[in-house]
Each structure stands twice: as C-alpha cells, then as structure tokens.
Write a structure and sequence with these properties.
Elements: E1 3-5, E2 13-14, E3 25-32, E4 35-39, E5 47-49, E6 70-73, E7 82-85, E8 95-96
Parallel strand pairs: 3-8
Antiparallel strand pairs: 1-2, 3-4, 3-6, 4-5, 6-7
InterPro entries: C-type_lectin-like, C-type_lectin-like/link_sf, CTDL_fold
Domain C-type lectin: 25-87
Protein name: C-type lectin domain-containing protein
C-alpha cells in the first residue's frame, strides 16, 4: 500500500486498501470539546478544526462504544465514508493513515 497524498484529509488516497482487506483505518480526527479536530502536521500535539468531512449515512452517531470521539474510514464499501468510534476500541484490527514529511 502506498500513500499518494495527504492534505488535511481532502486528498487521502490509498492504493490497495479496498477490495483486498476491507479493514477500517484510523485517520487521526478526534472530537475535542464538541468539535471534530485534526492534529497540526508540524505540531502533532495541537489540533485545528476539520474543514472537510465525509461522514457516512447517520454518522456521526456516538454509538456503541465508550469515548466515541475518534474517526475511522468505513470498511464496508469503497466509498471511504467516516464512522465515529471509541478511541480505545479495537475496530477489526484497524490500520492508520499517517502523515510523513516530504523529502
């Protein structure tokens, strides 16, 4: 799997993640004080509000786990829609999208 681009989740494109495993992956978005936020690339301990979302139908729903304040990309189809999940839940051995500084 190769990460082609990553710009505050607007350009997330992964190769080979769907059609083979159908596993979810964490994208770093968290709900902080009722606002969905993403870490700043240069300062990962600081967050800014998310300006782009791709919630699945009826999401975010706050359902079915403790501390439902994190986001995974939906693993049921190829649309890549978001689902809020508990930050400490083990969602089907989910992977993660990471940012890497360009060379």
């Amino acid at each position: 799997m190769q990460l082609k681009s990553f710009w505050f989740l607007e350009g997330v494109y992964t190769e080979g993640i769907y059609g083979v495993t159908f596993k979810p992956y964490w994208i770093g978005v968290r709900k902080i004080n009722s606002t969905w936020m993403i870490p700043i690339q240069e300062k990962p301990s600081e967050y800014i509000p998310v300006t782009f979302t791709k919630w699945g139908r009826s999401q975010p729903d706050g359902c079915c786990s403790y501390d439902v304040t994190c986001v995974v990309v939906n693993h049921w189809d190829e649309r890549g829609e978001w689902d809020d999940q508990g930050c400490y839940s083990r969602v089907n051995n989910a992977g993660a999208v990471c940012q890497k500084q360009s060379l």
